[in-house]
Amino acid sequence: MLEFRKIGASYDGAVVLQDVSFAIEQGETVGLVGRNGAGKTTALMSVYGVPDVTGHILIDGRPIGRRSYEPTGRGVSLVPQGKRIYPNLTVEENIMLGRASGRESHWNLARIYELFPNLERGSNRMGTALSGGEQQMLAIARALISGPKLLMLDEPTEGLAPVIIDELISAFQKIRETGTALLLVEQHIAMIQKLASRYLALRKGELVGDGPVADLDRREVQELIAL
Ligand SMILES: Nc1ncnc2c1ncn2[C@@H]1O[C@H](COP(=O)(O)OP(=O)(O)OP(=O)(O)O)[C@@H](O)[C@H]1O
């Protein structure tokens, strides 16, 4: 449902992605791995036309236009690195910001609160009054309310305690069971191995791996990715 065709990306002329092509099918869970600076975040941002992008990105076979809200309206949502919670809005207001008009979806507020009961309990609190783990849940909730067919997550477990990471893994499994595809950016392959069936690997802006997640155990694959 999401396809990259020969994507290149650069910041003020400095090339950070080159000739990146892959496709993610409906309902798939894919892990995108690579070292710091390999271009993972840039790959996700290029769906929104940021930074300067060449090549073609398609959703359900149709190219994406230049409007930054178009991917969300067409079923591709991002949980950005660093969560980006709005401090002056309540938890519920933060969630509702993510709503994309006109999209019917499994994910209404009641189902989101069932997935993350902590958010329901804290629904009237300010978004930034939550713990780090709850803020990550809030960022995921805000993306889910848009009814994505593909949810892209940029290092969702960064800086979180193992017990919270386990809660998130269980939430991702439930999200996946609804048929939503996941594209999970992670530096730690253990998380990818728990959730994904396929991996993509970036190294210095180039796609150097695309295969079954079991291959991540092979030393030659790890050396290629240089994790
Ligand atoms: N706003 C920016 N302006 C200039 N260069 C940038 C900008 N953002 C990222 N870069 C550069 O682009 C390259 C790819 O960065 P990117 O954040 O996509 O990598 P990443 O794989 O997501 O790394 P990380 O795990 O650190 O988030 C890096 O060399 C980085 O320094």
UniProtKB/TrEMBL annotation:
CDD domains recorded: ABC_TM1139_LivF_branched
Keywords: Amino-acid transport, ATP-binding, Nucleotide-binding, Transport
SUPFAM superfamilies xref list: P-loop containing nucleoside triphosphate hydrolases
One GO biological process term: L-amino acid transport
Keyword match Nuclease: no
Source taxon at top rank: Bacteria
SMART domains for this protein: AAA
Residue intervals of the ABC transporter domain: 2-227
Transmembrane segments: none
Family: Belongs to the ABC transporter superfamily.
PANTHER family: HIGH-AFFINITY BRANCHED-CHAIN AMINO ACID TRANSPORT ATP-BINDING PROTEIN, HIGH-AFFINITY BRANCHED-CHAIN AMINO ACID TRANSPORT ATP-BINDING PROTEIN LIVF
Name of the protein described by the UniProt record: ABC transporter
Organism: Intrasporangium chromatireducens Q5-1
